[in-house]
């Protein structure tokens, strides 16, 4: 813990940690020492970790990287952060992210962007988003592991951009209670780590049924670490032809082929599959996620939490709402709220929102069909490129940024588990990730397969 606290102090330029809790960390590390000495140490006893700013943590700023939550210090812990604490993990502080987890580059944060510890010719790169601070902190050894959340790729894409491991579990595996909601039917928490083994250990600690989240599953949590046997003989791995998108860089295609070869060499059968509705996933996601966000974010009204605008004489409650929300939400969040409100409004609801929900069902069925045909897991690239420069996409058309999620959003729409594993470097010397998509509740088999790719 002391070593990490020192590293965090020396790495201010990465802007990964945005609220540090050194005193609390040292106190918990001391308690962990005592448990270790007494010989009754839980799985993560004394391991220093970072927590994404989206998770509520008792008495510690939890702002979802938004100005509208300025000064918000919850009186309770999210179920996931409480479980990690119970497993002995030591929280070092809160990690940077895109505002309300909306973004793919950590550039929508009210704290300013986090920076990727990987560089090309000294050029500053994004660590990805929205869990960019988590990825940067793990990659730069500021903590041993971190929590992330993934609504459309926010664990897997930053993991790919920083050479770390990130798993989005099956929807319902981890409780969402106490995590600031973005799009409730898509959001899941998950671990971001150095290795697949670490991800297995941490996922087990984070998982499990929670009466406070009615969508959390009442299923046993396996010993994921024990499943990392390296034996994937007889497994069938699907390669979806629709993911070979137009203009896919040669290097990404080569990485994908290499991954397939590695799995084949380890005894898996690799087959081509079709997921025909893939091309509708991004448009469906960018209707459903903003629709849910516009509803979830209605609670930030200047009354219950955080920021309230200074009012002029004669301003009434309407002006208070308007000014507070205009000041408190950044431009990307405002864009999502407007898109969401539009697609849910009378007259457009059927054309957009209901349509997108039907498309979501078709995407889910695509996966169900291939799994029923005997496919155990699906291999794809995690991202269409390696990490890009800061400002490069943020200053372009927002749709350019949304295109980053082309390989990841299908997994959230279908509620499946997905993992990104580091799979080598591109010609610029930057990390690339491969994604494995698994059957529901099959994180153990997914981790086992991912372990072979490490
Ligand atoms: N980049 C996607 C978005 O902006 C995904 C974000 C996420 O997974 N939280 O919505």
Automatic annotation (TrEMBL):
This enzyme's EC code(s): 6.3.5.7
GO BP term, pick one: translation
Residue numbers annotated as active site: 52, 130, 154
Pfam families: Amidase (PF01425)
Record-linked Gene3D superfamilies: Amidase signature (AS) domain (3.90.1300.10)
An example molecular function term from Gene Ontology annotations: ATP binding
UniProt keyword annotations, A-Z: ATP-binding, Ligase, Nucleotide-binding, Protein biosynthesis, Transferase
Keyword Nuclease: no
GO CC annotations on file: glutamyl-tRNA(Gln) amidotransferase complex
Complexes and interactors: Heterotrimer of A, B and C subunits.
Family: Belongs to the amidase family. GatA subfamily.
Listed name of the protein: Glutamyl-tRNA(Gln) amidotransferase subunit A
Species: Roseinatronobacter ekhonensis
Taxon lineage: Bacteria, Pseudomonadati, Pseudomonadota, Alphaproteobacteria, Rhodobacterales
